[in-house]
Amino acid sequence: MATEILVNDGGAPARILPFIAGAALSGGEAVIMSADGEVDPAGAAATNVIGFMFTDAASGANCSVITGKGVVLNALVSGTAASGALLQVEASGDLKAGTTADAGVAVMLGNDTGGAAALRPVLTR
Question: What does DSSP say about strands 39-41 and 30-33: parallel, antiparallel, or unpaired?
């Protein structure tokens, strides 16, 4: 059984929008809009994250992106992040605990067990 990405839209602040994937993308991965109009993985400390992938998508395929503030979803998180930690995008495109307020794209809702990237509950900001 697949893991659900969208957990709770908090009374419908979320929008699920259609795009074209500019690269192979995974459900729960933070994405940005590239200059060619396709969505790509977010890079290190990206502050222009437009949302999170709803499902996996191959490069060039139609895909769905969850956007909005205050949305509870399962996002790819790496390393150790305590509940309430500000999360920012790292070079791999995963979220990690960080201290750069302007780069924060989500808040950790549960304790991460650490180690490899895994889907963890976050609140988008």
Answer: antiparallel
